[in-house]
Structure formats: C-alpha cells, structure tokens
Amino acid sequence: GSTMAVYVIAGYDITDPKGYEGYVPGVVPLLQKHGAEILVADYEAETLEGDARMVNVVLKFPSEEAARSWYNDPAYGPVKQIRLDSTQGGYIAMAKEFQAPA
C-alpha cells in the first residue's frame, strides 16, 4: 500500500564546490522534517560500470507521500536551486521498496 517505504536515489557532479556549500546544511533539516533517513551520501563512490556521478545519495522515506512532500516543499525550492546551479548531470529517482511476490 501507500505506507510502503520508498527510496530517493540521486546522483550528480559538483561543478561549483563553493556554491554547493550551502546545499547540505539547507537540505538536511528538510529531510528530517519529512521523515527521511540518509542511507548513502558518498562523494567518492567507486565506479564499477558505466558513467557514474561524483555524488551518490540514497534516501529512505516512510512513504511515497513523504518523499513527494519533501521534494515539493516550498522551503526546498531555494535549496534545490543551489544544487541545480552548482551541479550538472544530475538525476533524482523515486523507487519503491522491493516486495517478494506473494
């Protein structure tokens, strides 16, 4: 149902480290506000295959609603803009928790 955990998976390359500095302190309180758990936030992940991004993040939210309310939170808008302005090649995906077939 809708109470299933979802994972928000993000990757991007930082192009302006100075500009990016404001992003993490801005986003963390908003993640906490919406019940997110930061499972991965690695700036030096090893690439095993393909064209990996510099920053790799995995967030766990209690529900799809929680993930969407974080992403669409008006307070996140200006913080998100910091990330968009200081990174490139970014993507953010929302993936549902795996459930074994009944």
Topology:
Blueprint: E1 6-14, H1 17-20, H2 23-33, E2 37-42, E3 55-61, H3 64-71, H4 76-86, E4 87-96
Antiparallel strand pairs: 1-3, 1-4, 2-3
Helix pairs in contact: 2-4
Task: Characterise the protein shown here.
By secondary structure, the chain is α+β, with helices and mostly antiparallel strands. Helices cover 33% and strands 31% of the residues. The protein contains 4 helices and 4 strands. It has a 4-stranded antiparallel β-sheet with strand order 2-3-1-4. Helix 2 packs antiparallel against helix 4. The longest helix has 11 residues, at 23-33. The protein is globular. The relative contact order is 0.35. The mean pLDDT is 95.
Question: Count of helices?
Answer: 4
> What share of residues are in beta strands?
25-35%
Proportion in helices: 25-40%
Secondary-structure class? alpha+beta
Shape: globular
Order of strands across the biggest sheet? 2-3-1-4
Tell me the radius of gyration: 14 Å
Order of helical and strand elements: EHHEEHHE
Biggest beta sheet attributes: 4 strands, antiparallel
Mean pLDDT across every amino acid position: 95
Low-confidence runs: none
- DSSP strand tally: 4
**What is the terminal-to-terminal distance?**
14 Å
Brief synopsis:
Helix content is 33%, strand content 31%. With 102 residues, it is an alpha+beta fold. It has a 4-stranded antiparallel beta sheet with strand order 2-3-1-4.
Entry keywords:
102 residues, 4 helices, 33% helix
